[in-house]
Design a protein that fits this description.
Blueprint: E1 6-14, E2 19-27, H1 44-55, E3 72-74, E4 99-107, E5 113-120, E6 125-129, E7 142-144, E8 169-174, E9 180-184, E10 189-193, E11 206-208, E12 230-234, E13 237-242, E14 247-251, E15 264-266, E16 286-292, E17 295-300, E18 305-309, E19 321-323, E20 347-352, E21 357-362, E22 367-372, E23 383-385, E24 407-413, E25 416-421, E26 426-431
Antiparallel strand pairs: 1-2, 3-26, 4-5, 5-6, 6-7, 8-9, 9-10, 10-11, 12-13, 13-14, 14-15, 16-17, 17-18, 18-19, 20-21, 21-22, 22-23, 24-25, 25-26
């Protein structure tokens, strides 16, 4: 394993959420790493600490530092194309159909290497790059959900629900211990893999939301899901964004077998209620969760806001801060008026940088917003990508370098940011606008 620069983090215990978060300092390492080979690289303990930080914060995983010197586009041949499967033809490794999210995670079962993941919802698959791409010519190494890189059928072409196929997957994450979770939303389940697959067509080891790997029914209970949209390991717990039931399910320990029961819910008063609402302790189609500085953040998409919670140690907590709205009981698109620096329209993902900036995917306003931390209720973004200014939301067609349409998935990379530009079927790596 070769690491050009990374974030070494001394773990700091924060008890507010019952999570273990960290304070980070940059270190430079340039030598091979094999668990204390005497070459001056990170030790096994240091690599474990990095993994805990980068895999354990939710959002899209790790903050990168790849040394990018220029922008590039992945899954398209140029900046003005938005072709299905890269060239408008059949399924291929280098293209996508309805890209939904992206992520970067360390794999403790493969030398702690940072890997890049892309969820290709329209082709019912997850693409895994065994190293972080550095140009538009990069192709994935492994596919999950299909037997090969040229197939894109529901449930792997097997018809019935099974352990190796997917139906409109939307999110993938990797835990500190190497478990991988895929939100297989149209099958109303989250698939669990004991480790990141290294060969095409791998079958899941266990399932959340169903009794077995061949069932795909929806429900509202401690063990059932309805169109789940994400799953994150954070602080020894698993947080599942159960979008159709308007809640975040919290499992007090990370599951490892079929049909685990959630311990409690965020957004609902109990584990049998699935109604939406617009208050400090209700949600409407949540998409994303993540932690920063001891607080839990939730992208409450249908309420067009981001909620911030200080105490989520038990069920039905109330948020303490909201952005996108000025009140906890106001939930209109763009606050019921025109787009501005403080409004949102279906926010669906976010991520944090080490210099205390939060990026928010403002999906239906076709832009990415940047907020200074800590957030304050009703606060305004200070910069954006995708538009000419903070009061525009034009869906540019054809696209160009720096325009975005229906974004999902954000990864900071030193002076750049990676954006899952779903509507244009591509990933852009662009300079930060500040």
């Amino acid at each position: 394993m070769s690491v050009s620069r990374s974030h070494f983090c001394n773990l700091l215990s924060l008890s507010v959420l019952g999570l273990t978060l960290s304070a980070c300092a940059d270190i430079n390492v340039t030598v091979g790493v094999s668990g204390g080979d005497g070459g001056g690289g990170p030790t096994e303990a240091q690599l474990q600490a990095m993994t805990a930080t980068q895999n354990g914060g939710g959002g899209s995983g790790a903050e990168l530092d790849t040394g990018l010197g220029s922008s590039f586009v992945l899954f398209q041949s140029d900046w003005v194309s938005k072709l299905v499967n890269r060239d408008g033809g059949g399924v291929q490794a280098a293209g996508v159909n309805a890209l939904y999210s992206i992520g970067a995670y360390r794999d403790p079962n493969d030398g702690y290497d940072l890997k890049f993941f892309a969820v290709d919802r329209g082709n019912h698959r997850v693409l895994i790059f065994n190293s972080i791409p550095n140009s538009g010519a990069a192709v994935p190494d492994v596919v999950v959900g299909q037997a090969d890189m040229t197939t894109g059928t529901v449930n792997g072409g097997l018809g019935a629900v099974n352990g190796a196929g997917l139906n409109s997957p939307v999110f993938v994450s990797v835990c500190t211990d190497g478990k991988m979770f895929i939100a297989d939303q149209a099958n109303h389940r989250v698939l669990g893999f004991n480790q990141v697959p290294t060969a095409n067509g791998a079958s899941a080891d266990f399932v959340i939301g169903q009794a077995d790997l061949t069932t795909g029914v929806s429900g509202t209970s401690a063990t059932a899901l309805r169109n789940p949209y994400a799953a994150h390991c954070m602080g020894g717990k698993l947080f599942v964004l159960d979008r159709g039931n308007h809640r975040v399910l919290v499992y007090s320990s990370v599951p490892s077998s079929n049909l685990p029961a959630a311990s409690y819910a965020i957004g609902q008063p109990d584990l049998t209620t699935g109604s939406s609402g617009c208050t400090a302790n209700k949600l409407n189609t949540p998409y994303e969760s993540g932690t920063h500085d001891g607080k839990l953040y939730v992208a409450d998409g249908g309420n067009h806001r981001i909620l911030v919670f200080t105490d989520t140690g038990s069920g039905n907590p109330a948020a303490e801060t909201v952005i996108g709205q000025t009140l906890f009981t106001s939930c209109a698109i763009n606050q019921g008026g025109g787009v501005s620096a403080s409004t949102l329209h279906w926010p669906n993902s976010f991520n944090f940088s080490s210099d205390e900036v939060m990026a928010v995917s403002d999906h239906s306003n076709s832009r990415v917003l940047f907020f200074s931390l800590p957030l304050s209720t009703g606060g305004a973004a200070f910069a954006q990508i995708g538009q000419t200014d903070l009061s525009s939301n034009t869906p540019y067609d054809p696209p160009s370098e720096g325009t975005v349409t229906t974004t999902k998935g954000l990864i900071f990379d030193d002076g750049y940011i990676w954006i899952g530009d779903s509507g244009n079927k591509r990933v852009q790596a662009l300079p930060l606008p500040y």
